[in-house]
């Protein structure tokens, strides 16, 4: 998918013509607020209105938001909340904070957004924690295999005040970044076109010996090696070609990532291995946050909370109604239109995978990284503490039913 080929009915040329008049951020925010198809005229009117509102007074702080490959179109597929956060923060602060949203890999990509924020080139970024783990290794703390039994447990942990102590504070102390909110899915193996004519995967052993793309997460590699999935580092931007050309059998990622990145035409089966986190998070520079006044800091946290609740509900709906990651699969979804079959493995197969690779059953595989993460977190047992919190909710709980909490208020 070219960057702006079609944003809900507007051509690339028309989009950039409007953006040239009212600015990229105002145009992106206006496009993201549309519920249906738009025309170039509608977009121009909305962008003008958005621009007028945003620039009605001088901002005290202008924050640059590097949002990897996201735009208003694909943020309606994977509901990562980036535009909603930016829009709410501007409104909540009555324009005292202005957010310049720059997506589509124009400022940074999945692997580099974290480093650009650490370097002060951007103030806020959005990318997966797994791809960001190369620049901020403490994010590996989310990637112990089978630590989270389901999406509900992921949201429950992010809302928990304990996430402040276990995830957010060490992340900020070590990497100078403030973890704001995240979308939640669990990773599986997305098989390429070479699996199109093969039966739908029902047994874990059918995946043994396959060659699969791995992200920047060091812990993800441990799980994949233990499961005989032959992890191969491939940049996110090159994964589509790898699947298309058969250079790899599959890629470890999650369902809505396949859909938003236009990988569905080259994926034949989405195997729900759910073996570790797929978390498309938004974070900001801690020094920038600290430079804001108390009221504006409160606003950032409240907007992050609001975005988290939005993501929790919207992404669960989009998985079923937009992506097609359900059984039965709804027609006219991205997966249905591209003949992507969902392979939801039975509990005994998930248990087998867990026993092959998780710290609970194979502690020796994780010792080095577990010790490292524990030291970075001040000596706590990071795996066990997150594992316990993740099991405070039933493993079959619907993710949209998790109670939202303001994690920073204890």
UniProtKB/TrEMBL annotation:
Subcellular localization(s) per the UniProt record: Periplasm
Main subcellular localisation: periplasm
Originating organism: Roseovarius nubinhibens
Lineage: Bacteria, Pseudomonadati, Pseudomonadota, Alphaproteobacteria, Rhodobacterales
Single Gene Ontology BP annotation: transmembrane transport
Name recorded for this polypeptide: TRAP transporter substrate-binding protein DctP
Gene Ontology CC terms: periplasmic space
Keywords for this protein: Periplasm, Signal
NCBIfam families membership: TRAP_S1 (NF037995)
Pfam families per the UniProt record, alphabetical: DctP (PF03480)
């Amino acid at each position: 998918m070219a960057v702006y080929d079609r944003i809900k009915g507007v051509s690339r040329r028309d989009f950039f013509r409007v953006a040239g008049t009212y600015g990229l951020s105002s145009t992106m925010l206006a496009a993201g607020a549309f519920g249906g198809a738009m025309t170039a005229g509608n977009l121009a009117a909305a962008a003008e209105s958005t621009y007028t509102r945003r620039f009605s007074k001088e901002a005290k702080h202008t924050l640059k938001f590097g949002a990897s490959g996201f735009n208003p179109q694909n943020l309606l597929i994977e509901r990562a909340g980036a535009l909603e956060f930016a829009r709410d923060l501007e409104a909540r602060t009555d324009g005292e904070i202005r957010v310049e949203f720059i997506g589509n890999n124009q400022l940074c990509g999945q692997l580099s957004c974290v480093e650009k924020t650490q370097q002060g080139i951007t103030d806020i970024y959005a990318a997966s924690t797994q791809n960001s783990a190369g620049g901020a290794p403490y994010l590996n703390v989310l990637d112990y295999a089978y630590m989270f039994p389901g999406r509900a447990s992921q949201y429950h942990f992010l809302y928990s005040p304990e996430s402040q102590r276990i995830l957010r504070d060490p992340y900020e102390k070590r990497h100078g970044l403030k973890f704001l909110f995240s979308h939640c899915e669990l990773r599986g193996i997305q098989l390429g076109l070479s699996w199109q004519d093969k039966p739908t995967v029902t047994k874990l052993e059918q995946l043994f010996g396959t060659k699969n793309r791995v992200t920047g997460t060091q812990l993800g590699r441990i799980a994949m090696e233990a499961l005989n999935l032959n992890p191969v580092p491939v940049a996110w931007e090159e994964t589509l070609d790898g699947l298309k050309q058969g250079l790899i059998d599959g890629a470890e990622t999650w369902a809505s990532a396949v859909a938003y990145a236009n990988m569905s035409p080259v994926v034949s089966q989405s195997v729900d291995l759910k073996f570790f986190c797929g978390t498309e998070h938004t974070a900001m520079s801690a020094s920038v946050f600290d430079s804001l006044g108390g009221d504006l800091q409160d606003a950032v946290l409240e907007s992050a909370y609001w975005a988290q609740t939005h993501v929790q509900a919207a992404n669960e709906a989009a998985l079923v109604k937009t992506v097609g990651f359900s059984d039965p699969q709804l027609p006219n979804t991205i997966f249905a239109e591209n003949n992507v079959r969902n392979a939801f493995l039975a509990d005994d197969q998930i248990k087998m995978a867990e026993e092959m690779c998780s710290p609970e059953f194979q502690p020796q595989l994780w010792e080095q990284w577990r010790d490292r993460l524990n030291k970075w977190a001040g000596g706590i047992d990071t795996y066990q503490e997150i594992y316990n919190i993740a099991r405070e909710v039933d493993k079959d709980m619907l993710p949209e039913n998790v109670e939202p909490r303001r994690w920073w208020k204890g």
